[in-house]
Amino acid sequence: MSLISLKEEKGSALVIVMxxxxxxxxxxxxxxxxxxxxGKQALKHDHKTQAYYYAxxxxxxxxxxxxxxxxxxxxxxxxxxxxxxxxxxxxAPAQGAPILVTLEPQAGGKEIxxxxxxxxxxxxxxxxxxxxxxxxQPGGELSPFDMALFAMASTPDRAAIAMSGSTTIxxxxxxxxxxxDSIQFGxxxxxxxGTLSVGPTSDPYNVIQTEKKVRNDQSPNPDxxxxxxxxxxxxxxxxxxxxETLPAVRTYPDPVFPDFxxxxxxxxxxxTPWVEGEYYEINQDGRYNLIEVTANRTLHIDLGGGExxxxxxxxxxxxxxIKLKNIGKNGRLILYVRDSITLGGDSTVNEGGQIKHxxxxxxxxxxxxxxxxxxxxxxxxxxxxxxxxxxxxGVIGHIITGGSEVTITGDATMHTRVFYAPRAHxxxxxxxxxxxxxxxxxxxxxxxxxxxxxxxxIDPDTFPFEIFPGGMGGGSYPxxxxxxxxxSWQ
Length: 490
Prior knowledge:
The chain is built from two helices and 33 strands. By secondary structure, the protein is mainly β. The longest helix has about 70 residues.
């Protein structure tokens, strides 16, 4: 081999070695970059995982807190802290807290959406949890029936309380509303024998609008921006008992309309044609299409000393009577009416009996036909139907409705004890009047009914507290029981 050939081979080998070294250096650089990137990704993944578990832990803490604190959620509640110290807060914590949880009541309080956010270093993860109440239904405190009238709130097109003509109310009156001019008095309208309470933190002189006026210097609170002889509204003349401000918003929750029984034995239509002796009786539970009592005849319902349960599509008491027998100590007629109610003429139901012995549930959407000189003694719960009571008829008992409209006109006298219509506008006109307490959304009285409402105490043993979630038992509801369960994660 020549010297030249040897030098050429050495040169080629050196080039190959240098190429290999460059390739190895490139591979090393790429490897180091990959390792560094994977390290960062692993660290980021670890941070994201930690943030996620913070969020999961926050959602779990919210569930535990709900079980301990109960169901009274006023708007949004917040929880924040770290894994060892989660607590409820009255206001939102600063963003970036290790764990932030918001709770939003849904479906009237029967569900809660929990949004839990976990923060760890530069990572943020969020978990959404839907909780549903199992067992007792959620709610809050049922405020007392200690006023002649309580109106929940005004609406854009209606005042909370409006009185015109010469109408009066005897007994305390209250409302949650705080809006200006949301209580309206005519010149000859008055609230006697009690105070008028307005919503928390509000000024009664701003909430009330009245036609009565006096000179500014005769006002107990003269307006410094006016001259002494300028005319100012004088609402204190409409309310001799004076004004108060509620310490807190009152709560009157929606009642729960029951499911109709499906296991009752079917019965043929029950009517009252003429028969010798004219005696008509139902002495068994059953499901009917029609029950009709006419021609001044009397249907006797035998309770057998306990509960008699009757379901009927159409109840027609047109100049007829229903009387209970064999009531016993705790007897009660539970009457489910699906489609229509007619109570006319001089008809009576449980006349002379006790309120607690009759519980009538009405599911129909049509207005119950209650007129003439009828008398009904018992409890009536309409799921959503408008209520119109006119003529000279009367109801002795409690009326509960989930509907939006109640009208009482003519010379109707409602010894209702409690007229519970928290979603309704209640209108009293003519000589219509209610004796007891009225719970409504908005209220209006016109004409010359004096008093339109007269307060009277109720016997709690007669009121069907079972229609409220958890039974309530005369205090708050639910008294105990019920649990939040996980409906879904996201």
